Structure of LOW QUALITY PROTEIN: netrin-G2:
Amino acid sequence: MLLQAVFLLLLHCLASTLGQYELCKSLVSTDEGSVWEHYACQPKPASMKDYMRIKVDPPGITCGNPPERFCTLENPYLCSDECDASNPDLAHPPQLMQDKERNGLLTYWQTVTWRRHPEPLLANITMFWNKSLELTDDIQITFEYGRPTIMILDKSMDHGRSWQPYQYYADDCIDAFNLPPKRVRDLSPANITRVICTEQYSRWVGSKNEKNVKFEVRARFAVFAGPRLQNMDSLYTRMESMKGLRDFFTFTNLRLRLLRPALGGTYVQRDNLLKYFYAISNIEVPARCKCNLHASQCLLQDGDLQCQCEHNTTGQDCQRCKKGFKAKSWKAGSYLPVPNGNPNTCTIAGSPSGSNCECYGHSNRCSYIDYLNIVTCVSCKHNTRGQNCQHCRLGYFRNASAELDDESVCIECNCNQMGSVHDRCNGTGFCQCKDGATGAKCDDCLPGYYWKQGCYPNVCDEEMLLCQNGGTCYQSQKCICPPEFKGVLCQQPRCEAGKDCNAASSLHPATATLLLCTLLALLLATLSPH
Ligand SMILES: *[C@@H]1O[C@H](CO)[C@@H](O)[C@H](O)[C@H]1NC(C)=O
Ligand SMILES: *[C@@H]1O[C@H](CO)[C@@H](O)[C@H](O)[C@H]1NC(C)=O
Ligand SMILES: *[C@@H]1O[C@H](CO)[C@@H](O)[C@H](O)[C@H]1NC(C)=O
Ligand SMILES: *[C@@H]1O[C@H](CO)[C@@H](O)[C@H](O)[C@H]1NC(C)=O
Ligand SMILES: *[C@@H]1O[C@H](CO)[C@@H](O)[C@H](O)[C@H]1NC(C)=O
Ligand SMILES: *[C@@H]1O[C@H](CO)[C@@H](O)[C@H](O)[C@H]1NC(C)=O
Ligand SMILES: [Ca+2]
């Protein structure tokens, strides 16, 4: 009885160390012989630091060029340690954050010291994989000589195009970020994906006592799966049902923004700045490739991680159906129902409905039109139209770099409303322009025209239609004439010969001066005694 219980327990342990969702398919025997059964599947967790590429900013932040001396917070008056980039034994380049340390030899990246205080000592460490990954355990960063007093961990899910904060770290969260200090264990299931500031990893406890800064993944999983992660089914159920939960653990890039180094539990001592710097010996990133539950293997190919897609899917993350397997639109596999999930396999086009109507994945419904005797796709999506959804709707054109079954096969014409005759375009996206307009979208004017909610012929310009008599051309729209001229090109004097004009107002200053001088001369001539 007891033995049996122990055995069952052992089986259970085996199953949980093997992990769920490790098989994409298996051969099962039925009455009609052996058939393949397909399951939702995912690759095993791996140490992603082995595949990580690192960039450190600003460029001169790594110590040793030129060589410099430093000391430690615990030994502040023994500044005899040296960092020298040209000496392999004394160099501290970025790759020492991800190396395999042999024979217990500690290797670490180190920055210059805070010699330019009070200017802040800032450094960014960007880590990228060119692959979507999902965290499976805590990120752990090991700092030699003390953990930073202020730091931010950022993540990107789109290969570095956009970034978001992942967690804030400070010895005083209110002071540094105006955020209340939290711990992951303060979080409830409803706010588990909240971005928090924590003081847990930034306070001074001695640089040897506590070197690690973590981004807690295990503690977050534990909220659903229990403290020893014994109930993973519950976690996987939440992964499927709770909005944003899977995305929270997903990333393609990470960035550490180091904002203030360890201070040794006191204020900055300006007379010894050689003891302030950052030094990281290891960055651990336990994660698995995100394959949308369509692959159990993820291999390095041409330098990048790549899911080995099953279920007739393809793409770096198995995020598409293979060509010819788009009878219905692509779906990620599902963790539910436990234990084996649902593979949401891509199926060969045409097979489910029985008829042979290819809709290139833009529709999953066909209908027979009696009087034409044809089968046609119904409600083509993605701006397609036609019997097989093989054309683009009016106002859209064919994306030359996309397959017919691609969701982005039709691109909006985007014709400029003012410059074009209508909102349709030709096969390469060119719109039909009104007179004077040009450009693929008709949002430009031909030479000799100016843009003002459409193209209009120039009134004036620098070549053919010059403003005359000192007039200046305003945006090709009108001549701004000097006061004594008028007309479209200022070609007409205001005072035409023979007309009576107000002389004073139109008198040129130079002419006025000349007149005044002549009068004075005359006066002098009459007054002078002969
Ligand atoms: C670090 O990255 C942030 C965000 O892109 C940027 O604003 C900052 O200037 C960078 N700092 C350094 C030292 O390069
Ligand atoms: C990223 O990976 C994809 C797919 O493996 C590859 O086509 C692309 O060239 C890679 N990009 C970089 C910058 O390495
Ligand atoms: C999360 O929710 C719990 C209980 O609902 C609350 O006590 C806690 O303060 C919340 N945490 C954050 C960071 O909002
Ligand atoms: C993928 O397509 C091939 C060829 O039609 C088929 O033999 C195989 O069973 C399909 N795989 C899945 C998981 O449906
Ligand atoms: C055209 O198709 C390619 C391949 O799917 C896609 O990457 C690109 O974004 C599409 N272009 C537009 C403008 O939608
Ligand atoms: C679309 O119009 C542009 C400009 O008139 C022309 O160069 C291009 O060849 C046309 N494309 C097609 C497919 O007709
Ligand atoms: Ca190391």
Q: What stands out?
A: Confidence is low (pLDDT under 50) at residues 1-18, 351-355, 503-518. The first helix runs from residue 2 to 18. The first strand starts at residue 25 and ends at 30.
